[in-house]
């Protein structure tokens, strides 16, 4: 069935993080400007999820609730259908989000002062999960060349050989650069980490948002059975179906000891291995009834990407838009403009009325870049691009 991706809800007074941040920065921002920063969608949720939640409210009561057989089967069958692997039910641990899972993983896999390897520019909560828990961020920056981004395997091998570095936080697909790592790349990464006893925490939250012509390989599918205990795979329906607010993440941890430590660490915080009643129902509905909605969403994201990329190529010579293989986030290099990071941010907000995630917040290699959230109606993406082109022309940048 066709879904409506042309309308968006008014989130100005709804407590939405990115809207509140935009209005704090510029209370006078026009009504037709939307923020393109934080990675949630300016689109309605799948109607099948909303129907399931309405049914839950009609049925009641909203008491203490745990995961059902239907919930577990929905999670496992989704991975089987969409990603061609079959995790075991007992591998599942639950978390209100992948970011809490990062923090939890860092604490159980290392001691204060130990190193955790990341590959910037990368999702900035990786760094905060390491630093806030008293560990050391160890950067192995991605390599950017004329073909796009690549893993620096020589650098990774050198860093993994240091016994002080206990784990790697892997972003797969990679946010913000949009790479979908191939099976060969993942296998080479695994070989390096396993040879040096470096545990892999694989953030696969964007695994469903894969653009035409590309295929996501879960890291589990490049591992032999006896290698699975050295990974943790973080998934969630939140990015896929715009469900971040219901706080549901499904973490696959094959090793029993690591899984027990993960759950015990959450128990120390009185979180426990449980979610809220809405999370279970929304996740189950999304994973069992919403594949058609997702397929149409991917078409919208790809259309928005190509529209903005083509506009930039025609109107903003020198600005480089990186290929989008996965996620709904476009990564663009404005280094040709010669603006310092604070100048670029000021230009985007004051002149173009664009509220983005600035490249420098993603760490090494992010300076001069901007991340555009494409998960919104096409009309809003086109309007944003047109504002940027007009501002660039007015200031002699195009």
Note poorly predicted spans. none
Average pLDDT across residues? 97
Oligomer designation? single chain
N→C terminal distance: 42 Å
What are the secondary-structure elements, in order, as H or E?
Answer: HHHEHEHEEEHEHEEHEHHHEEHEEH
Report the C-alpha radius of gyration, rounded: 21 Å
Q: Characterize the main sheet.
A: 7 strands, mixed
H/I helix tally: 13
Give the structural class. alpha/beta
Number of strands: 13
Q: Estimate the helix proportion, in percent.
A: 40-55%
Can you tell me the overall shape? globular
Strand content: 5-15%
Q: Strands of the largest sheet, in order across it?
A: 1-9-8-7-6-2-3
Describe, in plain words, how this protein is organized in 3D:
By secondary structure, the chain is α/β, with parallel strands linked by helices. The protein is built from 13 helices and 13 strands. It has helices at residues 17-25, 47-59, 69-83, 98-109, 125-131, 153-160, 183-195, 238-241, 256-268, 277-289, 291-315, 341-351, 378-394, and strands at residues 92-95, 115-118, 136-139, 143-145, 148-150, 165-171, 199-203, 231-235, 249-252, 320-321, 329-333, 357-358, 369-373. β10 (320-321) and β11 form a beta hairpin. α6 runs parallel beside α7 (183-195).
